[in-house]
Amino acid sequence: MENKFSDSTPQRPEGHRMLNAPLVEMDLHKFIAQIKSEKTWIEGKHNSITIFKSALLRIVLMGLRANDELKPHTTNGVICVQVLQGQVKFITEEHTATIEEGQMIALQENISHGVLALTETFFLLTVAMAKDE
């Protein structure tokens, strides 16, 4: 397996963050502090950082300010949302769940869903990518 690193971007010009290797360490406190220090968070309503990425699995740390929302969308894979700080409403056509620190949900692939932050919230989004048949 070849190690994979992030590329430089205007938001993160330093680049070179480990995204995939036989073992990837992830300091969530450090990543939350990084998100909060970036212009996108300071001037906007949300920010995120991919902390692991392989062909079959992605882990993204997302931060939403209170009352920010992610409009309804679908994902081509099973997802898990684990709230690290704060509280969100996770909304599908058939169900609404309020999840807070220490709680998580799982959702099957291709189900329309949205997210509303009730407070400033940080959560891990894990996506198990659908295999091509």
Assigned CATH class: Mainly Beta
Widest β-sheet, arrangement of strands: 3-4-11-6-9
Order of helical and strand elements: EEHHEEEEEEEEE
Overall geometry comes to globular
Number of H/I helices: 2
How much of the sequence lies in strands comes to over 45%
Number of structural domains: 1
Label the CATH architecture. Sandwich
Total E-strand runs:
11
Describe the structure.
With 133 residues, the chain is mainly beta. Helix content is 11%, strand content 48%. It has 2 helices and 11 strands, in the order E-E-H-H-E-E-E-E-E-E-E-E-E. The model has no long low-confidence stretch (mean pLDDT 92).
Q: What's the gist of this structure?
A:
This protein is 11% helix and 48% strand. With 133 residues, it is mainly β. A five-stranded antiparallel sheet has the order 3-4-11-6-9.
Write the layout of secondary structure elements.
Blueprint: E1 4-5, E2 18-20, H1 28-37, H2 39-43, E3 46-53, E4 57-64, E5 69-73, E6 77-85, E7 87-92, E8 96-100, E9 104-107, E10 113-117, E11 121-129
